[in-house]
Write a structure and sequence with these properties.
This protein is α+β, with helices and mostly antiparallel strands. The protein contains 3 helices and 6 strands.
């Protein structure tokens, strides 16, 4: 088996994806949680599919994510070669750029592969992480 390369590691990070549309928020201090249990992408090294659930939780500031555009954005990962660690961080980056929330967490829980299941958590702003769960 050939080694992982820098190209594998960078795959998908800068790919053009559908825009995330927003709408004006009318209320302060509440939390929105959106769960997408049908996440699929492609491993950039093996070409095999990755499956999982993406959960997005955020406190909106001036804008909220429009759900149809979020769905189209997440669907675009189906043919994208990207490691799921990078996908979770990219999703967080793109959401923060679109809506500038008070805070946001993106969690990816991926289907076991070879007996190993993986959960990835990315936050903005960055906070201390605890291995046992949320530290907020």
């Amino acid at each position: 088996m050939r080694d992982y390369t820098t190209e594998h590691a960078r795959a998908g990070i800068r790919a053009k994806l559908p825009p995330l549309d927003t709408w004006p928020n009318q209320f302060p201090h509440y939390v929105i949680t959106t769960r997408y249990p049908e996440y699929t992408s492609v491993c950039p090294k093996t070409g095999l599919p990755d499956y999982g659930t993406i959960t997005i939780e955020y406190m909106p500031r001036k804008h909220c994510l429009e759900l149809k555009s979020l769905k189209m954005y997440l669907l675009s990962y189906r043919s994208l070669g990207i490691f799921y660690e990078n996908a979770v961080n990219r999703i967080l980056r793109d959401i923060v750029a679109a809506i500038h929330p008070v805070w946001c967490e993106v969690r990816g829980e991926f289907t076991p592969r070879g007996g190993l299941s993986t959960s990835i958590l990315a936050r903005s702003p960055r906070q201390a992480y605890r291995s046992s769960g949320k530290s907020r």
